């Protein structure tokens, strides 16, 4: 069973997300109809949807840490309708797969939007789309490849030439970009915390509540916490790679950490040097390049570096090493501003499978699960969570049928081989990205 794990640093998103949720760890004996484990994009929306469908049912949502400072709250805050992978030829060739992916992500984005519009969830919601930015001719070639895939799918986009992207960002680092509408920018920690506040009345939330033991049974499943026990008729496990420690898909998770750093709030004179656009989000042409956000509250946020996460954990030394690379990226893009450094640096867990497989559906009697986003976690994770709750409540939908067809995760190679392979590939790809970093 997973044990409580404290990240070595607090995410900048969490530090700037407003008041904390009231902290109520679980204690004693709790009984419920449905227990949801994990309060990230999947789990929070699974709890919300199950409670909507079963308003008389008691739903308990637990998270081993604090909502918003968990892995989901540490992402870049892109709710992406259509992911991109210019390196992979089948992105162009697998049109049906990409259309299904688009349908799933649009379903997730619609559910996110309903939280904002119907329940007043404050999260700096900004549906402006994203810029795929290139700093090298190699990067431009990758964008051209991506544009061919968009053409085949009938997707709208527009090219942003050198003068325009440099004016938009205030950076002479970029030479061309492609703007693709549909992506929503948001503040992930703020969304998760405020969406937790807006959950239906029949949901009880317990943070800092790790599940340290599980006994599956009929009619009740029994779960141990550090200070009590939870008995549930149904359970929905949305614990990312930790799902493997609940007895399902053992030895299949490939845990990675990716890292980010955020500046303090920029002054008016400094803002004049980071472009005319206001808030924006830049996706690197090379997936191992640097992702950039200019936030609504006028900070710069840079993400790069991937590393294998032994036992799903990272260290302060890992965060500091990544921060060095983010400082280099800052120097390249805004040399006049980069001496200010960063106010916060952190890592976030991302779980992959050897075959790109994902977990979705019924795992055992009255046990359901969703895990292994393989990236694009905001939109995809929201749809997965909403849909697995619908499945647990006896519903069906076109999205559920799509997700049922997803290939499940395969068993990974032995840990030593996987760790060595991941370190080699990520190091080589990072070096190959060159100035896109």
TrEMBL record:
InterPro entries: FAD-dep_OxRdtase (IPR006076), FAD/NAD-bd_sf (IPR036188). It comes from the Bacteria. Residues 35-391 form the FAD dependent oxidoreductase domain. Keywords: Oxidoreductase. One of its GO terms (cellular component) is cytoplasm. Gene3D superfamilies: D-Amino Acid Oxidase, subunit A, domain 2, FAD/NAD(P)-binding domain. One of its GO terms (molecular function) is oxidoreductase activity. It holds the Pfam family DAO. The keyword Oxidoreductase applies. The keyword Membrane does not apply. This is FAD-dependent oxidoreductase. It comes from Rhizobium leguminosarum bv. trifolii.
């Amino acid at each position: 069973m997973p044990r409580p794990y404290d990240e070595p640093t607090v995410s900048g998103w969490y530090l700037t997300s407003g008041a904390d949720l009231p902290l109520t760890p679980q204690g004693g004996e709790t009984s419920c109809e449905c227990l949801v484990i994990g309060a990230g994009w999947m789990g929070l929306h699974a709890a919300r949807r199950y409670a909507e469908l079963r308003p008389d049912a008691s739903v308990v949502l637990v998270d081993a840490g604090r909502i918003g400072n968990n892995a989901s709250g540490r992402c870049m805050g892109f709710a992406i309708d259509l992911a991109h992978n210019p390196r992979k030829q089948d992105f162009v060739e697998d049109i049906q797969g990409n259309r299904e992916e688009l349908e799933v992500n649009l379903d997730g984005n619609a559910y996110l939007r309903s939280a904002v519009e119907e329940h007043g969830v404050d999260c700096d919601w900004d549906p402006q789309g994203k810029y795929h930015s290139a700093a090298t001719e190699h990067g431009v070639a990758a964008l051209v490849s991506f544009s061919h895939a968009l053409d085949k799918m009938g997707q709208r986009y527009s090219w942003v030439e050198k003068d325009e992207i440099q004016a938009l960002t205030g950076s002479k680092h970029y030479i061309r970009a492609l703007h693709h509408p549909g992506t929503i920018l948001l503040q992930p920690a703020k969304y998760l915390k405020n969406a937790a506040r807006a959950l239906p009345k029949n949901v009880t939330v317990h943070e800092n509540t790790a599940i340290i033991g599980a006994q599956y049974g009929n009619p009740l499943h029994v779960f141990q916490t550090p200070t009590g026990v939870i008995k549930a008729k149904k359970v929905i496990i949305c614990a990312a790679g930790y799902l493997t420690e609940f007895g399902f898909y053992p030895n299949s998770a490939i845990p990675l950490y990716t890292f980010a750093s955020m500046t303090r709030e920029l002054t008016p004179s400094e803002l004049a040097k980071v472009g005319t656009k206001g808030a924006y989000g830049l996706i690197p042409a090379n997936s191992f390049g640097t992702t950039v956000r200019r936030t609504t509250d006028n900070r710069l946020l840079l993400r790069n570096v991937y590393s294998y996460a032994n036992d799903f954990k990272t260290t302060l030394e890992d965060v500091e090493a990544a921060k060095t690379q983010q400082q280099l990226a800052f120097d390249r893009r805004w040399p006049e501003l980069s001496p200010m450094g960063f106010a916060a640096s952190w890592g976030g867990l991302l779980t992959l499978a050897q075959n790109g497989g994902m977990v979705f559906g019924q795992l055992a009697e009255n046990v359901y699960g969703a895990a292994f986003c393989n990236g694009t976690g905001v939109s995809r994770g929201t749809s997965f969570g909403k849909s697995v709750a619908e499945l647990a409540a006896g519903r069906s939908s076109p999205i559920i049928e799509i997700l049922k067809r997803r290939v499940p995760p395969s068993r990974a190679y032995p840990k030593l081989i996987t760790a060595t392979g991941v370190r080699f590939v990520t190091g080589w790809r990072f070096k190959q990205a060159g100035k896109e970093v």
